[in-house]
Amino acid sequence: MLLDDRKKRILEAIIEEYNNTAEPVGSTKIANDYNLGFSPATIRNEMASLEELGYLEQPHTSAGRVPSSKGYRLYIDNIMKEKNLTAKEKAVIDEILQNDITKIENLIHEATNILSRLTNYASIAMGPEIENCSVEEIKLVKIGNNRLMIVILADNGIIKESLVNYDGVIPEENIEIFNNFLNYKLKGRNFREIYENINSYVENELYNISNNIVPLMVEINNLLVDGNSKVYMEGATNMLALPELKKVDTLKNFLNIIETKDAIKELMKSGYDGNINVYIGQETAFDDLKDFTIITYKQSLNDKEVGTIGIIGPKRMDYKKVIPTIKYLGEAIQQKINQGGKKDVRDDGEE
Amino acid sequence: MLLDDRKKRILEAIIEEYNNTAEPVGSTKIANDYNLGFSPATIRNEMASLEELGYLEQPHTSAGRVPSSKGYRLYIDNIMKEKNLTAKEKAVIDEILQNDITKIENLIHEATNILSRLTNYASIAMGPEIENCSVEEIKLVKIGNNRLMIVILADNGIIKESLVNYDGVIPEENIEIFNNFLNYKLKGRNFREIYENINSYVENELYNISNNIVPLMVEINNLLVDGNSKVYMEGATNMLALPELKKVDTLKNFLNIIETKDAIKELMKSGYDGNINVYIGQETAFDDLKDFTIITYKQSLNDKEVGTIGIIGPKRMDYKKVIPTIKYLGEAIQQKINQGGKKDVRDDGEE
DNA sequence: TTTTAGCACTTCTTTCGTTCGAGTGCTAAA
DNA sequence: TTTAGCACTCGAACGAAAGAAGTGCTAAAA
Asked: Which DSSP string do the residues of B3-60 spell out, in sequence order?
């Protein structure tokens, strides 16, 4: 259903006014400050009509109007003009990403940091689901005399590493044997597949060399599922300053959201790669989220998901600024991921 | 200045009552519920006296009394009996720590997780200051075809690792040369010393082999200071439910504390190793902390600090439970650290 | 001498009615 | 079709009054 131009302009004015004040917006305010060329009475009529259509809401009879989720949706899709970042803002982001961050997880973690500072909302990030990871290479490295570092490189560029302690000194030959064995057994396999069949991979063959293989395999298994689609959040306390959280109910909802993170996880899993996904209030099925908006950006490498970044903020958000910000950051990070993950010509068959 | 027994018992009762209710405590309540064998009038006299001595405070004339920082201090040092953890509670902690966590940082990070869940306050942790780390071993590992992982093992057991991307394929010989060179130059040196003199370590000699050594050294330098005495915090939102944070001022102070973390950092640096350190409200010079208590436990390995764990909560805290909890966890973690730092005796896996 | 009952006093909290202001919807005129 | 005018609604702000909690002091009891 399309709105005529006048209604759109009024809706836009209301949303912008509401963004600034967080108070219900009255007809006179719009008539005076947004010179649309109509009297308060006319605007009043239009507002009544916009409410009828579901784009506005009224807290009580004698109050002004507040944009509904549907109103914001229309605003985002049809009305607002995105405000590109200034050269300066871009420079800030670029500068931060300049520090050679090569591990995808660190990159994504850094993103939450940037996002919460840039938007002043809570930023969220999620690592890849293990279904999306397969072993590309596994490496054992002797650290000191009695520790082994396990490094697993996944085909989507994710790197996981961990340590195991050993009893006594580890003979170099054993490391190489283990190394070869592990690569032979695990290379190319999906993380989840390995996790579920770990026992079948270690058979008698290896026990003979050393039963130290057991704690090693246990740790590898931990490593595979470690942080599986775990949600990180930063800057949640930014949110506390928001007027919307003055209402006890809304605050409780928010605390609920960040405590369980289920809703966030689910939304982050859905959505399209390499694109902004915006979920406004009741657009999701989660009741706790009814006063909040979640915006996400999925990162991938060679068509494999590696993680998702985003923010959670109040529905009342400066979308025309926030969306381009996340877009820019998402793309910048995507570029860094691609850079680090570029597979160029393999030279020798080392392994 | 010692208090007579009756005053102590009254102070104890007041503190315990206040812990439960978060409301100023009146004489009648104490007389009725804590059968000390005195009438409200007598208790009233004693309360006036305890206030005179600085152990209690009165919000206003017609209100009950509230324990002061000095009151809590006396309570902790002289009055309360620590309540040991139940076997069950210990089992929970042991169980969580059972998962072979070998990296000290992960261990400390895991501790914050446990602490915030166990205490329902905000838990804090700080990594080691780089002054306390010296290079024990440095290792370069080729990952895939064009990435190098740098692993640095410090003498206090801290392990840091990072990745650098390379243009083109890295010849194996170069890695070995770099490796030897780095160990030769850096082994035994203090992190800070290296950080400040990095340029003098890389001279012409290495450029000739490959100028790829430059990004490598840059990354090593980043790695050395990465997370230097950085404060981690978890469960800050637990605190929001507290009645003390209903007061806007107190909330602001708290937000200030977690935003800057300066006060926390300073307190965590002071204090004794392997021991509980308790800082109650005005006992610190930080005005923002006047309504909060910070409890810390410093971890070390071979007399070298490796980090500090702790909590921040309201002054009104169930000290006789919280203190043993942190103590137990601190000691458990210390044990794991010592274990990892020496040799882990482990015969074989169970599964 | 110590303890306690009794009571006047202080201060905060709650409640309730009133006023005030913001903003609406409707009607009738422009 | 737009707008001025106006009665109406409802929450917010204010202030007075009542009520609750708890004190400190005095004088009697133990």
From this structure: PPHHHHHHHHHHHHHHHHH-SPBPHHHHHHHS--S--HHHHHHHHHHHHHTTSEE-SS
